[in-house]
Amino acid sequence: MSKKQHDTPMLDQLESGPWPSFVTGLKRLAKDSEYMTDLMGQLEHSYKTRKGYWKGGTVGVFGYGGGVIPRFSEVAEMFPASKEFHTLRIQPPAGMHYNTDVLRKMCDIWEKHGSGLIAFHGQSGDIMFQGASTANVQGAFDELNELGFDLGAGPAVRTSMSCVGAARCEQSCYDEARAHRQVLNTFLDDMHRPALPYKFKFKFSGCPNDCMNSIQRADMAVIGTWRDNIRTDEALARKWFDKHGMTELVNDVVSRCPTKAIMLKESKDVCRGPKFRRWRSATRTHWKLTTAIACVVCTASTS
Amino acid sequence: MTGALGTGVDKGVTILMGGKRTLKIGDLMGTVVVPFLPMKTDEDYEALVEIGQKSIDFFAENALEHERTGEMIERIGLINFLEGIGLEIDPSMVSTPRTNPYVRTDGWDDEVAKINARKAAA
Question: How far is CA B100 from CA A13, A76, B96, B104, in A?
Answer without folding.
Answer: 61, 64, 12, 11
